[in-house]
Design goal:
Strand 6, helix 6 and strand 7 form a beta-alpha-beta unit. A 7-stranded parallel beta sheet has the order 3-2-1-4-5-6-7, with helices on both faces. A 6-stranded parallel beta sheet has the order 10-9-8-11-12-13, sandwiched between helices. Helix content is 39%, strand content 17%. The protein contains 13 helices and 13 strands. The chain is an alpha/beta fold. The N and C termini lie close together (11 Å). The longest helix is centred in the middle third of the chain and has 19 residues. It folds into 2 domains: 187 residues, 3-Layer(aba) Sandwich (Rossmann fold), CATH 3.40.50.2000; 171 residues, Glycogen Phosphorylase B (Rossmann fold, 3-Layer(aba) Sandwich), CATH 3.40.50.
Length: 371
């Protein structure tokens, strides 16, 4: 049995973002198949740890990313537990992984969630070029790179000169094998909570709302989609969820008469995703796979997305549940939403779960890792 150490540089339990959720479920399912140890920050809620041993060896301050003492504390853990594989979540601890690989007989694996420097470039961070040099170097040192999408894998091979044989596809997964049976009940619960008519189609958008790509997407919903949707004689409600909505939006109260409501931060995002009839994803920047889409499709919820917003999702297993519209074509985006409201509902294909169920994802990854 493999003995794996996963180094997670930030808190992920409890999870609030798609990236944190990815790490939580990845570790939970990986721990079922191997002896897994996770080194993370002390501010994680260890009561939520499942199927692995958590070691709070990382400090919570920003200096943890350059802490040289981790070489020794993690080295002791590697020796004591006879670790054979070290996984880094993101490339930030690449320098540390490189040193551990030099000092111990371990395989180094980098679990990428996106192309980090490209994500920062698209949101206007001026230091993205420096990160591109470092990120490329880190990936070149790894024995294997776990890629979340085929687009990322091609980017690494073509633009970062990474050996394609070291790039292993590990998509963002979902924790269940079949469509949920409680969608109707979930919608009743959410509509009752927010005073909405459950017979009206429920359109949903969620994300951290101080993150520029998500805030831009919210503006598209309010300023581009909503006026066009209002021209139609269709019942609907739009529910927006996520923390850190800027104060200038005043909890979206000005849009309540147009059937737009703000739920704030919600503890159980899966409940809302299952309740929704359509997930709106008009995101056009930020890069990476939009994990909310995979979760929505897994919940048998229809998705209308931009070309950029759908990047990284395997269209061949989505059937009619995923509708894609060209970037910036908001008239077509709105029309596609209207058509999706009117159409007869179809279930997500079984092939979707075969590809995205975490158990399948982890098993395929372990078979592909270098010995």
């Amino acid at each position: 049995m493999r003995k794996v150490l996963n180094i997670v540089p930030y808190p992920y339990l409890p999870f609030f973002s798609g990236g944190q959720k990815l790490i939580a479920y990845f570790n939970e399912f990986l721990g079922k198949e191997c002896e897994l140890h996770v080194a993370g920050t002390a501010d994680n809620n260890i009561r939520q740890v499942k199927n692995y041993t958590f070691h709070p060896l990382l400090n919570s301050n920003r200096l943890r990313y350059i802490n040289p003492f981790l070489i020794f504390s993690l080295g002791r853990l590697i020796r004591n537990k006879q670790i054979d594989t070290v996984i880094l979540e993101h490339p930030y601890y690449g320098w540390l992984g490189w040193i551990l690989k030099k000092r111990h007989p371990v395989r180094l694996v980098v679990h990428t969630h996106n192309i980090e420097y490209e994500r920062f470039r698209t949101i206007g961070k001026v230091w993205w070029k420096v990160l591109s040099i470092y990120e490329t170097w880190v990936l070149q040192q790894a024995d294997a790179i776990l890629c979340i999408s085929e687009e990322d894998r091609k980017w690494m091979v073509e633009k970062m000169q990474i050996d394609k044989n070291r790039c292993i596809m590990v998509p963002y997964g979902i924790p269940y094998r079949t469509p949920p049976e409680d969608k109707i009940k979930c919608k009743e619960i959410i509509c009752q909570k927010h005073g909405l008519d459950p017979t009206h189609p429920l359109l949903f958008f969620n994300g951290l709302l101080d993150y520029k790509p998500n805030l831009e997407a919210l503006d598209v919903i309010l300023n581009e989609m909503l006026p066009r949707l209002g021209e139609q004689d269709l019942p609907y409600n739009i529910l927006i969820a996520g923390k850190r909505l800027p104060a200038t939006y005043q909890q979206l109260k000005a849009w309540n008469k147009q059937h737009v409501f703000y739920a704030g931060f919600v503890d159980d995002i899966d409940l809302y995703t299952k309740a929704a009839d359509i997930l709106l994803n008009p995101v056009i920047s930020g890069g990476g796979v939009k994990t909310k889409m995979i979760e929505a499709l897994g919940a048998n919820t229809s998705v209308v997305a931009t070309q950029s917003g759908s990047a990284g999702v395997d269209l061949s297993v989505c059937g009619q549940k995923l509708k894609i519209v060209p970037d910036y074509d908001w008239r077509s985006f709105t029309q596609t939403v209207i058509e999706t409201i009117k159409e007869q509902k179809n279930d997500i294909p079984d092939a979707f779960y075969k590809k995205y169920y975490w158990g399948e994802v982890v098993n395929q990854m372990l078979l592909s890792l270098p010995k």
